[in-house]
Amino acid sequence: MPPRILDFAEAVLRRPSMYTLLGSPAEVVAFLVGFVSGRAGAGGPIEAWNAFQEWLAEKLNVSQSDVLRSILSSYGESATDELLRRILEYRALDSQVAPERKQRLAPSEAPIPSHDVAHSVPAPGTTWRVLARRANEEPVSVSAAGTFDELVVDHWLHIEQMEERTWWFRVGDARLMASVDVDGRLSLDVLRGFYDVVRGTTDEWIPPT
Predict the structure, then answer these.
(1) Is residue 113 predicted with pLDDT exceeding 70?
(2) DSSP per-residue codes, 103-121
């Protein structure tokens, strides 16, 4: 699964005024550093961010502690654009080496297959709808499709890309990443706008009529 902290960083850099007061490069960098530091105990987010910074420091020939300061001083008002470009470059390289890493996984590390989910998800280029409810409201049953238990979402989702246990969707100007949990549930993390996390079983995916 692509590191979610990089999804969040990409969303912030694309629309900085949604996450910071002024949207200035220095403010955006401070926000991202604070966001990652506040989740240091979670392991995954800060490890993924540190791996990106280590890669970028090597590219820029600076120390890892100075990498963001170097971007700010070198690019000024264009620093957010440059940092976004570097994140996209890093993720493209990371996705190329991911298949090689999967082949090296020990059996105990290999992802647990979820055939029911895999068979229920359509191919890229198709469009499905997802429904949910607000967390503070009673569950909303959707006939035989089941019940959601998070934020209200009633939109068409266009599937852009499918990888092992990961699907990318587009709804409006928001990009969604869906991952398959070990128990076969789909988790959607929506990283822009007013959306939040939506969770549901495969039976809750409703094809358009």
Answers:
(1) no
(2) HH--TTTSPPP-HHHHHHS
Query: pLDDT-based confidence at 48, cuts 50/70/90?
Result: confident
The neighbouring-strand residues paired with 167 are 162, 178
Rounded Cα gap, residues 99 and 57, in angstroms: 25
d(CA 148, CA 208): 18
Residues 55 and 88 in one domain: yes
d(CA 117, CA 127): 16
Q: Which two tokens stand for residue 8?
A: 């969040």
Q: In b/e form, how buried is each residue of 80-98, taking b as 16+ CB within 10 angstroms?
A: bebbbebbeebbeebeeee
Identify the pLDDT of residue 11: 84
Q: For the purposes of burial, counting CB atoms within 10 Å of the CB of 109, is it exposed (0-12), middle (13-18) or buried (19 or more)?
A: exposed
Q: Are residues 76 and 124 in the same domain?
A: no
Is the CB of residue 180 less than 8 Å from the CB of residue 114? yes
Helix and strand counts by DSSP (H, E) for the chain:
6, 7
Query: Structurally, how many domains does the chain consist of?
Result: 2
And the tokens for 128? 């499905």
What pLDDT, on the 0 to 100 scale, is given for residue 57?
93
Q: Are residues 26 and 95 in the same domain?
A: yes
Q: What is the pTM of this model?
A: 0.47
Is the same domain home to 92 and 121? no
The answer to whether position 23 is within a domain reads yes
What is the rounded CA–CA span in Å between residue 46 and residue 86? Answer: 17
Quote the domain boundaries for residue 134: 115-206
